[in-house]
Design a protein that fits this description.
The chain is built from ten helices and four strands. The chain is α+β, with helices and mostly antiparallel strands. The protein has one domain. Helix 4 crosses helix 7, helix 6 runs antiparallel to helix 10 and helix 7 runs antiparallel to helix 8. It is globular.
């Protein structure tokens, strides 16, 4: 029931944003929908903590990370669950790629074929570590322990993404997922 309420809240919130503001500004988002959202300016939103009046407060901020193919997107609860991400994650990090349970969910068809926003984020985070996400997913399917060892030793040992293959993987994820209403 709580999930339905949250989804309903997101639906109403997105209608309100589209009707009244006509744009998503990260700093205006509540902290519980900040992570994995994309602003109207195509920049990723990220959750940060700050001290205010001696108390730790969550704040949604606009990062400098630009998303090429999406704008005005608040990630769905279905994708958050399918991909195993946490809306309360602070900042953006590749650390979760070291966790076999997370990588298993990220590479599963429920996430990789239906959640292009999350796939794009972790594709780029993996590339920043010198790892090609489709290769990591394949290694995860074949031998989960070895894939983590390869990821951990990837600083130069693993080949970086090949642009054409990267485009095909990202295009597959984008083509497989229905476009959210607020992208149109």
């Amino acid at each position: 029931m709580a999930s339905f309420r949250f989804t309903f809240f997101l639906f109403l919130y997105s209608l309100f944003l589209r009707a009244s503001l006509a744009e998503i500004v990260c700093e205006d988002l509540p902290h519980d929908v900040c992570a994995f959202s994309i602003s109207s300016s195509r920049k990723r939103c990220l959750l940060e903590t700050a001290m205010e009046k001696g108390k730790v407060e969550y704040q949604c901020r606009t990062s400098e990370v630009v998303v090429e193919r999406m704008a005005e997107h608040i990630e769905s609860d279905e994708c958050v669950r399918a991909c195993g991400v946490d809306r309360n994650a602070i900042g953006i990090s590749s650390d979760s790629l070291l966790e076999p349970q997370f990588t298993n969910k990220l590479c599963a068809p429920a996430c990789s074929h239906n959640c292009p926003n999350i796939v794009d984020l972790f594709f780029n985070l993996a590339a920043g570590e010198g790892v090609f996400l489709p290769d990591l997913c394949e290694a995860q399917r074949r031998n989960p322990r070895r894939s983590m060892a390869e990821f951990m030793s990837s600083s130069g040992a693993a080949s970086g993404p090949v642009p054409m293959e990267a485009e095909l993987f990202a295009a597959d994820a984008l083509a497989s997922a229905p476009a959210p209403d607020f992208l149109e």
